[in-house]
Amino acid sequence: MEMEEKLSALLEKAKIEVNEAQDLKEIEALRIKYLGKKGEVTNVLKGMKDVSPKERPIIGKKANEVRDAITVILADEKGKLEKEKLEQQLAEETIDVTLPGKAVTTGQTHVLTQIIEEIEDLFLGMGYQVIEGAEVETDYYNFERVNLPQNHPARDMQDTFYITSDILLRTHTSPVQARTLEQHDFDKGPLKMISPGKVYRRDTDDATHSHQFHQIEGLVIDENITMADLKGTLELLAQKMFGKEREIRLRPSYFPFTEPSVEVDVSCFKCGGKGCSVCKQTGWIEILGAGMTHPDVLEMSGIDSKKYGGFAFGMGPDRIAMLKYGVNDIRNFYLNDQRFLEQFKRKG
Amino acid sequence: MRVSVKWLSEYLDLSEIKPVDLADQITLTGIEVDDVTLPALTLENLVVGKVMAAEKIPDSDHLKKTVVNIGKDESVSIVCGAPNVKAGQKVIVALPGVKLPNGLKIKKSKLRGVESNGMICSLQELGFSDSVVPKKAKDGIYILPIDAKTGHKALPYIGLDDAYIELDITPNRADALSMRGVGHEVGAILNQKPVFPEIMVSDDRTENVDEYISVSVEDEQDTPVYKMRIIKDLQVVESPMWLQRKLMNVGIRPIDAVVDVTNYIMLEYGQPLHAFDYDALNDKEIKVRRARKDESLVTLDGLKRELNPDNLVITNDGEPVALAGVMGGLTTHVTEKTQTVALESALFESSVIRKTAQSLNLRSESSSRFEKGLNTAVIEQALDHAAQLIADLGSGQVVSGVAKVETIQPEDKKVTIALDTINHTLGTSLVMDEVVQLMERLGFDTETSARPLTVTIPPRRWDIEIEADIIEEVARLHGYSRIPATLPKNESIPGELTPKQQLVRETRRFMEGAGLSQAISYALTTNEKAKAFSKHDADPVKLDWPMSAEHQALRMSLLSGLLDNVQYNVARQNKRVAFYEIGRVFHAVSDNKLPNEITHLAGALTGPRIEANWQEDEQDFDFYAVKGILEEWFIMLGITDEISFVPTQTFEELHPGRTAEIRWQNKGVGVIGQLHPALAEDRDLKETYLFEIDMDILLDAEKDTLIHAPIQKYPGTKRDVAFVVDETVLHDDVLSVMKQNGGKWLKAVKLFDLYQGNTIEEGKKSMAYSLTYQNLEATLKEEEVTADFEKLKTALVENLHAEIR
Predict the structure, then answer these.
(1) Other Cβ atoms within 10 Å of B88 Cβ, number
(2) Architecture of the domain made up of A111-345
(3) Quick one: which residues bind Mg(2+) (chain B) (predicted)?
(4) CB B586, CB B556: distance < 8 Å
(5) Nearest to A102 among B485, B513, B615 (CB)
(6) pLDDT cut 90: percent of chain B above it
(7) pLDDT at position A158, please?
(8) What is the spatial distance between Cα B377 and Cα B269, in angstroms, rounded to a whole number?
């Protein structure tokens, strides 16, 4: 019985010592002290040779129980200490989450490019191609091919920067249409294109005039294209650019390359049509010009105007940006003041 | 074209429609209305006053004390500064409470101790522009006719009780540059038939025009029609109120009854006229011809005009007496003494008039009408009407007969069109009756018995020639609002950006992600800026006739523009500036060819890349920060292996020791470098880094198809090597030695340390590289790596005289 008591006493002693252990190192030391190869439990079991064979199984069982119990005590205490240690670590690692984050400096797309890409995407979705042409053009493609022969009074509508008598800075993106028209193979399907880009006019720069600005023109040529199709297309465009509730209205106008020609107004997005300063009390804002492609324009490109027809439209991203964001000086778009440009970072 | 609604009411019944609503309808169906003015809204309370007395105020040099009767027995005291005020005059009086167009509000006041209870008005004070006020009324108050009714409203006398509609007339609708034309147009819009008064000439049959004048033309193309009438026994008087009023209110200054009638008739019919003082002509022959070289003419405005064969002139006795269609000559113009007038009504070739008006910078109401075309049906009618009116107003007589050259006759045009064509083009489903009714509203006869429809177009609508023109008339009168909205129902084709357009967009997003904002600058710039930063060996493309030196040449580099942007921002306390621009540069080819347009990508960066914050110190952009951006972009384009950066000193605008030419496949495609410190100082800039690349070449480059490579499963083995070399040895030199001598397992080389300083001998630098060896098929053995590594070190020593540390 002596050994049994020794074992019990050992367990009690281990309980006390483990309980008093301060850190994981002490726990490990205690494990070695009690359960190690030369530990106290082993030590006690060395006396087994003096125990009668009858009692041996009982002592053996007891010894295993004590060993297991100490193992459990050690494990529990170890877990407890580990948890404390972790908690202490977490406490030490606590930071002020309200401090500012590290700046990620990104640049932003120019507001005019944003508008152009938005319009491009709308028309890409409707099966149009985007075609960019040259900014320096010939008089022939810029004027004559869009039905503006020499000395046509409508040439006054567009004052032109000439380089030579035949070469000029394009006054609109229409020469791209003329060049595309003459190359298009209608056996491969209809022509649906938009042409965005810079254009130039002989204007003195002021709040509402710029010698350089942007234009996007669109052209659809096929059999059976109607003015109703033009109206529907422009309605989509107006709603995309100015909001779903917008309506459009068409008014007669004149462009040499379309007949009939119309100006297109969108119902005022500021006041909804009641009349305000943005729409000059009319409820409507002029946003683009359009019309049914003039048969002469088609014939000059070698296209049978009896068989094919279509529509064209043109708008100014500068003007759209001015209207949409209340920009009152067109020069802002070309001054590249970061404080101006950064305002258009916001997309939502 | 400014349209008086009262004048228009002479042809149409407008009693049921408000001017503003009329303007709306005109805009929606016909011609854009710029503005509607109703002066009476603010000027209601002007009255006719009779000046009873006007005396100088003793201590003033120009003020007068007047007593003005303003109706019945009521008189008021008014202080007036006008030099022309006199007792007995009928004048326009603004009583207290009236607000004048210039913002002045009339109040009771005292001037020099004299009570002033109103104001006697000049025309300018009532909103008329200086340029339309009759010369004698320019410097004082306006004097009404003596029969004006004292105490009555003053507005009707000067036409301000009317409404004015300002039409913005496009070049195709020159038919509406006349009141009769507008009458037809508004009649069509309102579905009313306009009624115009008939004009009868009561001429003197005892004489014939032949006894006075004969006319001839040199070229019937230039002058298809030339007509003249003679009005004799005239007195040139001031025009009556009704005529002055009509002219002033639409923007024309009354001069005298002869000139005023020519202007009035031009407004009514659209036909410009010219009146010559017959007695100032030297002989009885008028000939229209091209001017000769070295000929000149002193025009009405007193300026001597040098002429050339581009100009068409009216000649008499061999000498030019007028610039056809543009301006009369000084010696033959009508004066107070004129007794006989030769009145011209003609048709001149529009392009000739246009050229003359343009080259002499003499645009007039008359020339612009000739340029845009005339209603050939009223050339003589306008002449008759004007002649009779001049005779009536000046107590003269029209001599019978018209001297004329008439090579064309006004003719109706016929356009045939199928109903289907109309409906197909418009997307409508109109029936024939509807179309016919719309044509009737325009006053066009139609022939429907034989289909397709034939429409007869009178000469007054010379803009209508083809089917599409008829379709436009149908569309606008039917109403654009009644055209449905549909989408094209054609074969669907995919819409997509070209690979290049896609890459341009990716590049924008990439640059923005890297912290650069997109700039858009002017392509036109100064000559010097156009050339700066460009290695292209030619002058820039220049404008023939620039508006300013600032914008006279097309840029050959984007960098000057970007630098201007940087400077602008830095000057406004934007410390960090990082811009990119994608745009065209222009390279001249030869005089008569289009220049090459090349799309470039450029960037300009200055100031802090990282701003000082609670964790980090400020770090400015440096060469390597900018280079790193480009290197990552080259990875995106898939051309990294073909790109090299080669030191260059050929850009005089850039720092000679901090500039590299960017080469792709050993061809120069761009540059990266620091703005030359001297130039930076000129612009007040700190270190500024720039790059510019020919984007067309890189985006057009053929790329290998991207094929996924398996992720490496065998670990790589690393070796580090550090050595000291001459400071002139480039990183690129080290890389090429390593690449050539590194053995087949060397997969990556990375510089991890670069040092120059006190522990290193002067003129030398220490470099440390980390090398990664890898066999894609198997784990590398230590001995394999060691053997290669030793070979590489030996090569460094042999080739670069490196001392391995």
Answers:
(1) 11
(2) 2-Layer Sandwich (3.30)
(3) 463, 469, 472-473
(4) yes
(5) B615
(6) 77
(7) 67
(8) 10
What is the pLDDT confidence band of residue B480, given thresholds at 50, 70 and 90?
very high
- Domain spanning B203-406: CATH superfamily: Phenylalanyl-trna Synthetase, Chain B, domain 3 (3.50.40.10)
The verdict on a CB contact (< 8 Å) between A249 and B28 is yes
Taking alpha carbons only, the member of A191, A190, A229, A223 closest to residue A309 is A223
DSSP output for A193-241: EEEEEEEE-----SSS--SEEEEEEEEEEETT--HHHHHHHHHHHHHHH
The structure tokens listed for A246 are: 């917008």
pLDDT at position A1 over 60:
no
H helices within B402-518, ranges in order?
419-426, 432-441, 467-478, 499-513
Distance CA B779, CA B781 (A): 7
Cα separation, B342 vs B279, in Å, equals 9
Instruction: For the domain covering B40-158, report its CATH number.
Output: 2.40.50.140
For range B712-727, the mean pLDDT:
90
Q: B420 exposed, middle or buried (CB, 10 Å; 0-12, 13-18, 19+)?
A: exposed
How many Cβ atoms from other residues are within 10 Å of residue B411's Cβ?
Answer: 11
Which of A116, A119, A287, A114 minimizes the C-alpha distance to A197? A116
Nearest to B154 by CA among B124, B132, B128, B126: B126
Element (H, E) at B636: helix B623-637
| Residue A34 confidence (pLDDT) above 90 | no
| Ranges assigned E (strand) in B118-269 | 119-120, 143-144, 164-168, 203-208, 214-217, 225-232
CB count within 10 Å of CB A269 equals 18
Domain boundaries, chain B: 2-38+163-190, 40-158, 203-406, 413-482, 499-700, 717-804
Q: How many CB atoms lie within 10 A of CB B323?
A: 26
Residue B105 vs residue A180, higher pLDDT: A180
Cis-peptide into A196, omega within 30 deg: no
* Lowest mean pLDDT across A29-43, B143-157, B622-636: A29-43
> Looking at residue A53, what is its pLDDT?
83
A217-241 pLDDT, tens digit per residue, is 999 999 999 999 999 999 999 999 9
Choosing among A261, A338, A340, A346, which should be mutated to test the B contact, i.e. which has the most B CBs within 10 A?
A: A338
Which B positions 684-723 lie with beta carbon below 8 A of chain A?
none
- The answer to whether B776 and B768 are in contact (CB under 8 A) is no
ipTM of the complex model: 0.87
- Interchain contact, B486 vs A113, CB within 8 Å: no
pLDDT at B712: 77
Q: Assess whether pLDDT exceeds 90 at residue B110.
A: no
Tokens describing residue B194: 């306009």
Which helix (H) or strand (E) covers residue A55, if one does? none
End-to-end alpha carbon distance in chain B: 91
